[in-house]
Amino acid sequence: MRNPYRDIFTAPGAKGFSAAGFIARMPISMTGIGIVTMLSELRGEYGLAGAVAATFALATALIAPQISRIVDRYGQGRVLVPATAVSVLAMGVLLLCARYDAPDWTLFACAVPAGCMPSMGAMVRSRWLVLYRGSPHLHTAFSFESVVDELCFILGPIIAVQLSVAAFPEAGPLAAIVFFTVGVLLFIVQRGTEPPPHPRVAGKTTSVMRIRGLQVLVVTLIAIGAIFGTVDVVTIAFAEEHGQRGSASFVLATYAAGSCVAGIAFGAFRFATPLPRMLLISIGCTAVTIPPLLLAGNLPVLAATVFVAGMSISPTMILTISLVERLVPPARLTEGMTWTTTGIGIGVAAGSSLSGMVVDHFGARAGFGVAAGAALLAASVALGGYRVLRRTAPRATTVAHSGSLARATPVREGEPH
Predict the structure, then answer these.
(1) N or C: which end of the chain has fewer CB within 10 A?
(2) Are the beta carbons of 371 and 234 closer than 8 angstroms?
């Protein structure tokens, strides 16, 4: 049987932009956890650390879609450099404020412009869309990028936490700045695979968030993001309570590893099942596997539990991006994909902040209750929005088993399959 992952890299430039995108995406897993580790060590308050990380995540969530909208209009090369410069400069000032014990408000003031970080995952997926729109290769490419995201979450927390603990508190976020700067520069010099810009047509252009199906996906991802933010903050606190603070990064890596394994398997197969139905099943698995985190009594048990819980992440993200590709007009796809990141970012902000307060008042294990509540909310929203997705994404199906890479006819909702 042919390897579908090998086939997608036969296109010129595919290896280069995907590799550069991997480097540029490392900060998505390093920055938030690095801020939490840095500030909890320097200031001794998880509430403050979680709130600053939440501010950064929320700023990124709100600013990134606007950057992507401009990218769709003017192109990646013209927009990514200035946006990256603003983000890197603000993050550098934040580290200086933390180092020299500046007032707490300065940390929040810097976290906002630091959120000008573009959604590099959306930028990479936009290039795959140019190469493989309408081809079965696109499902494999999206699956591969989801696995790359999880590799970032495996390696990123380990690098950030270990550097901050072993070297100096600011080392983790500083490393994130370096990865981001180098990755973006390597990415933008590859002009051959850059998607063409789509100049705005005459008349008023409304946000793609007016699409009801996209609204369902983003709200669902807010709840999913709250799980991510909670697991990050509470895992660090849990490890510290057990006298093994440095082990937190390995537990978080295990969480991402579960998602990575599932993503590889999911990308190798295609199913004659409507995407809305598969998304509902995937989120249902999340709702079942998150509550057992409340029962973990030590780090090995926690690691095993989060590994299982992580196995629904990649399938959920792959299905979500596939639905966005069918819901959003081609000229607005970068913006549409970035709104999914925005949903996660808003959720991360809420989860980080709320779980930090719970940890400060009730202890680390109680903080996982926030994740359990968020999982239940995600399942409820997905179930409530299922009919909307069926109506608004009539082409939202995957094709049959992946052994063949030939084009397949999509199965529409309501048709026998």
Answers:
(1) N
(2) yes
CA distance 208 to 392: 13
Measured CA to CA, the distance from residue 33 to residue 290 in angstroms comes to: 20
Assess contact for 206 and 328: CB atoms under 8 A: no
DSSP per-residue string spanning 53-83: HHHHHHHHHHHHHHHHHHHHHH-HHHHHHHH
Distance between CA atoms of 111 and 98, rounded to whole angstroms? Answer: 12
Segment 99-116 mean pLDDT: 91
Residue given tokens 């294990």 in the structure block: 365
Q: Count Cβ atoms within 10 A of the Cβ of residue 25 and give its class: 0-12 exposed, 13-18 middle, 19 or more buried.
A: buried
Helix, strand, coil content of the chain in percent (nearest 5) = 80, 0, 20
Which pair of tokens denotes residue 145? 């990028």
Whether the full predicted model's pTM is greater than 0.85, yes or no, is no
- List the domain range (segments joined by +) for residue 123: 18-191+208-392
The answer to whether residue 9 sits within a structural domain is no
Cβ–Cβ contacts within 10 Å for residue 361, how many? Answer: 10
Establish if 146 belongs to a structural domain: yes
Residue 411 lies in a domain: no
Cross-strand bridge partners of residue 397: 274
Cα separation, 72 vs 126, in Å, equals: 10
| Residues 265, 262: Cα–Cα separation, whole Å | 5
- With both helix axes pointing from N to C terminus, report the angle between 76-99 and 46-74 in degrees, rounded to the nearest 10: 160
Residue 151 within any structural domain of the chain: yes
CA gap 246, 172 in Å, rounded:
13
Segment 101-129 mean pLDDT: 89
Q: Round to whole Å and give the CA distance between 101 and 111.
A: 16
The greatest distance separating any two alpha carbons of the chain, rounded to the nearest whole angstrom, comes to 65
**In this predicted structure, what is the pLDDT of residue 292?**
92
Q: HSE (CB half, 13 Å, CA atoms) of 175?
A: 24
| Residue 274 bridge partners (DSSP) | 397
Give per-residue pLDDT as tens, 335-368: 888 888 788 878 887 888 788 888 888 888 888 9
- Three-class DSSP category at 42: helix
Q: Which residues of 312-337 are buried (b: 16+ CB within 10 A; e: fewer)?
A: bbbbbbbbbbbbbbbbbeebbbbbbb
